[in-house]
Amino acid sequence: xxxxxxxxxxxxxxxxxxxxxxxxxxxxxxxxxxxxxxxxxxxxxxxxxxxxxxxxxxxxxxxxxxxxxxxxxxxxxxxxxxxxxxxxxxxxxxxxxxxxxxxxxxxxxxxxxxxxxxxxxxxxxxxxxxxxxxxxxxxxxxxxxxxxxxxxxxxxxxxxxxxxxxxxxxxxxxxxxxxxxxxxxxxxxxxxxxxxxxxxxxxxxxxxxxxxxxxxxxxxxxxxxxxxxxxxxxxxxxxxxxxxxxxxxxxxxxxxxxxxxxxxxxxxxxxxxxxxxxxx
Length: 280
Ligand code: KIV
Prior knowledge:
Elements: H1 7-16, E1 20-24, H2 28-36, E2 41-44, H3 48-51, H4 63-76, E3 81-85, H5 95-107, E4 113-117, H6 123-131, E5 136-141, H7 160-175, E6 180-184, H8 188-197, E7 202-205, E8 213-216, H9 218-221, H10 239-256, H11 270-279
Parallel strand pairs: 1-2, 1-8, 2-3, 3-4, 4-5, 5-6, 6-7, 7-8
Helix pairs in contact: 2-4, 5-6, 7-8
Bound molecules: 3-methyl-2-oxobutanoic acid (KIV).
3-methyl-2-oxobutanoic acid binds at residues 24, 43, 45-47, 85, 182, 205, 215, 217.
């Protein structure tokens, strides 16, 4: 029997290690691959909007789109903890709406937890969702849903004041009951200080080695999304190239009559075939 990863397991890793591994997945086949790869947390991120649905950013992603993809990922996942990302407009409007949408993530999407972006100001929302029975992962630093308000996709926490604010944000989210925190695009020494300031695990993306875990967008790290690649991405494969070459070879095989071969075709009994041929 495969042992399902729990919130308790994830929290314990702060003390016991090894570092927590987290990757995104948005559909059944990718969730199978990530789960079978032994990754601890699968995030159905709202990066869905950019890497799968072709939106220019994450702001347009809807709850219905998130639920649709979350369902597929939950069906595939046996071992990893599944986290559903709350899209822009689903939680930053009111506490009631946040609780209602978090319930949808759990009930319809079969998520194990949700993630929402924002620091101190979002802590009361996170607290209400936690109280309603849904575990919450916080997300601070560069928060892509509000990149416009942050002045673009920029590294956060670079001044002493901004760094102190990040530490305050982390503490507020811990006090709200979050079980872990994503730290995105912040200087490594500040990520270390945030990590030391809280008892819950931090999971970094562009936040250096001293977080309690790491997360990447899977489509970035396997080379399946090339519109842009942030500096913090390490590309472990280039599957776009492999797929493009398979498509080109298939097209050439069809055009030149090399596909389908006999091994891909069906036969029938000769006497039955002859009867049909006689009719012609
Ligand atoms: O949506 C997403 O993929 C994320 C990760 C970058 C953490 O929020």
